[in-house]
Amino acid sequence: FCAQGDMNKNLQTCVQLISGAARRGARMVFLPEASDFIAENRAQAAQQAQTLDGAFMKEIQQAAKDNNIWVSVGMHEQQATGLPYNTNAVVSDEGMVVAAYRKLHLFDVNVKDGPRLLESTSSSRGDRVADVVDTPVGRLGLAVCYDMRFPELAQSLRARGAQLLSYPSAFTEPTGAAHWEVLLRARAVETQTYVFAAAQIGRHSAKRSSYGDAMIVDPWGVVVARCSRTTSEPLLALAEINIDYLEKVRREMPVFSHKRPDIFSDYSS
User: Is 103 in the active site?
Assistant: First the structure.
């Protein structure tokens, strides 16, 4: 969907997607990066950010509980001092926040004839890899958007036991057209995990728009579900997650047992 500066409106959309996913039989739903709001400036981001026990997350927790479904949601997490974190939070079907990952890699980029975004001017950088989370659909590793360009994070999560990776995103249009799908499929293939990439789509403001193309990729690198790029209306893409198939892929292509930490010690997990 296309979040804007109105947090209440964005929250309504999130709740509708949560209930819609539950009605269609999903056991977990993944919402995009910055599902709470996309600010027009740094001041707005600082003013609107909330803690994990703020009103926005409380409503997400209640929706998860009411619909008996797990939720991954991207939000701006206010901290006691400093800029907010860009956070991927996981809520159980009992309405409890069970995990929160703070984005490690901030998007400070100036693309020729494209976007100039300095995320570090509005967000704080996280300082650790989050623990893998046991969910009804598998063991979930958490990341956010630009993190997908750093395979060492995905590799680390796989080494910690991840069967699924979550990349809630608001990818720029030029970089999305060039790299979005290939990066997601690469992370799925190299880690032999399911990859969930919920994505913002459309124009958020006069200065910012997002590429969209939310998708789910299987451990063989096949896109098994995706949302249309022809509309910015809220949409769901559903897929069956087959952990037996994942284990079969890993058994028949045992790349992690072929790693050479004796040679590549700096890159081994």
Answer: yes
Mean pLDDT (10-residue bins), the chain, 269 residues:
97 98 98 96 89 98 98 97 96 98 95 79 96 98 98 97 98 95 98 98 94 98 97 97 98 96 78
- Cα–Cα distance list, 122 to 54, 103, 115, 117 (Å): 19, 13, 16, 10
Told to judge if 181 belongs to the known catalytic residues of this protein, a careful annotator would answer no
Spatial CB neighbours of 206, under 8 Å, sequence gap ≥ 6: none
Collect all residues with Cβ–Cβ distance below 8 Å to 93 and sequence separation of at least 6.
27, 64, 65, 67, 68, 69, 70, 136
Which residue in 103, 119, 173, 227 is the catalytic one?
103
Catalytic, out of 14, 77, 119, 145: 145
**Residue 2 bears catalytic tag:** no
Cβ–Cβ < 8 Å for 191, 157: yes
Give me 19's structure tokens.
């209930």
Q: Which of 2, 33, 173, 227 is catalytic?
A: 33
Question: Distance between CA atoms of 138 and 141, rounded to whole angstroms?
Answer: 10
Is the Cβ–Cβ distance between 82 and 124 less than 8 Å? yes
> How many Cβ atoms from other residues are within 10 Å of residue 6's Cβ?
11
Cβ atoms of 76 and 48 within 8 Å: the answer is yes
CA distance to 17, 72, 73, 219, per residue, from 98 (Å) = 20, 10, 12, 25
Residue 117 is predicted with a pLDDT of 85
